[in-house]
Structure formats: C-alpha cells, structure tokens
Amino acid sequence: MMAVRLPAGLLRSLLVLTLKPFLGPPFPVSFQRFWLRLASNANAPSKAAEMDRLEIEGMPAVRALPRGSDTTRTILYFHGGGYCVGSWQSHRGPITHLAVAAAAQVYAPNYRLAPEHPYPAALEDAVAAYRWLLGTGAPPSQVALAGDSAGGGLAFATAIAIRDSELPAPAAVALISPWVDLRCDAPSMTKNAGIDPMLRPAWSRACSAMYRNGRDPGDPGCSPLFAAHHDLPPLLIQTGSDEIIVDDSIRLEASCRQAGAEVTLRVFDGLWHDFQTHAGILEEADEAIAEIAAFLDARWH
C-alpha cells in the first residue's frame, strides 16, 4: 500500500495550527515535551525499519536499521527540541527513514535536557555516546554524526569536541536545520518569524536561556558557530529558506569553507524548519533524506 502524501501547503497549515503555538512561552517545558511527542505521532516510522531499545552510557536509546540488515554502516543521531524537549520517541520518523535510505543502523540516545541539565550535559552525553559506539567495535570510517535543529548543533559541537580530543574522527557529519548560534539575533530570526510554521523566536530565546544557564550565548561550546572550524569531517548542511534560523546554516557553511572544510549547503526553497522530520508523508522530505543518504554513501569507506 502506498504511503499517504500531504502537499507542503497543507502540512505547513497544520503545523501553524497544531505545533507552533504550543512550543515556547507561556507553556511550561513539561507540557511542551508532552505536546511534541503527541504531535510527532503524525510522522510515522518507516515500516521497512525495525527498532530495538537499549541503553548507551545510562541514556535510553534506540537502534533503528532496515529489516533483515546486518550493516556495519552507523549513524549517531541527535534529536532536536531546543535542548529542552524531544527524544528518540518524538523523532522515530526521521530516524527510521534515514536508516532505510542510508542502509545503515542509526543509534539515537536521549541525551540530558535543560533546564534540569543545562550545558554542558548534552555535549558530554553526545561525546560519551560516540565513545561508547567506538567501544562496540564500530570503525570510525563507517560512522557518521547527524542531527536536526538543536540536535544538529549538538552533532556539530560533538564533531568539534572529537577533533579536540584523542578520539578518531567520524567519516562525515550531516546537519538538518542546525541551531548553532544561541544569541538568536540573526536577521532571519526576525525576517522569517511570520512564515516559519514551526518555530517562534520567543521559543528559541527561552530554550537558549535554559540551556546556557547564565553562560554567554556566544560561548563556542553552546554556539559552535563561533568555534574554530578547521580539520573537521566532510559536512552536509540542509535548511529551509523559510525558517527563522536559516542564517545559522548560511553562516556556518561560509565559516567552515573559509577554514578549509569540505562542506555542502542545500537551502530548500519555500520549506521550513526541520521539514525532513516529515519523511514518508512529504515528498520534499524524502528527497532531502535521500540526499543525506547519498552524501554518506560517498564518504563511508
């Protein structure tokens, strides 16, 4: 049976009505976590994938892979949610569709969230998950980092932390709408506030404050846009033209390119923040996931 497809315009309208108003003030974080998980049920996991629950360094996690596969190709995926909401449960859709498209096993841990666990908890958990993955025998040349939104920023910050440690580098990094500037003052934050159907600037600023917990928003640990970008793995950055943090991706690509990194930026015209999470029901999301898979396929050895 063919999957039900939704036109981008209809899906945009549904997000404006059912998600955007409920992320951020005045709703408490506990409600936002509940609502995101409820709303994410619309993004069904791929039926061609299987999922196994496990723990990674004490973190609840899931391993998704194509049914019947014994692949060694591995993606360590970090979910979005402003460092304050979200989980692998809310991101089963993109996790499983990416596993199938890339013919890879995807590990997705529930890293600690703010405000209970502000920076650097998430980054410590992400590096610990990568270290754990290598400890299972996964060769770095077969491992990629990926993530969406805050998870994209976390994946990028993790790549930087790995570079600055004794750990071997992953083969590649794929970033979906990465949030890498927690100052939240880029021009697109204001320019696109009315057309991004998912995010509000007020939510971004609230999440930034909770995650930073008093730390300078320009600190490169929190905002990896301002870190040194030399000697990083090949990068793919995807973003939508209509999202409030599109400038994060554009500036990140420019900075990485200037530092000599291999980086590819794709701006999807007329699309919004994290549209890739709608893989399986949105044709453009499937196209984007396929592009990530092709990028990784060319860089796994």
Mean pLDDT: 96
Tally the helices: what do you get?
Answer: 9
Poorly predicted ranges: none
User: Biggest sheet: strands side by side, in what order?
Assistant: 1-2-4-3-5-6-7-8
CATH homologous superfamily? Alpha/Beta hydrolase fold, catalytic domain
Radius of gyration: 17 Å
CATH topology: Rossmann fold
Query: Based on DSSP secondary structure assignment, what is the total number of beta strands?
Result: 8
N-to-C SSE string, H for helix and E for strand: HHEEEHEHEHEHHEHEH
Shape: globular
Q: End-to-end distance, in Å?
A: 35 Å
- Domain count, please report it: 1
Highest-level CATH class = Alpha Beta
How can the largest sheet be summarized?
8 strands, mixed
Write the CATH architecture name: 3-Layer(aba) Sandwich
Query: Which percent band covers the strand fraction?
Result: 15-25%
Provide the structure class. Answer: alpha/beta
User: Considering DSSP H and I runs of 4 or more, what fraction of the residues is helical?
Assistant: 25-40%
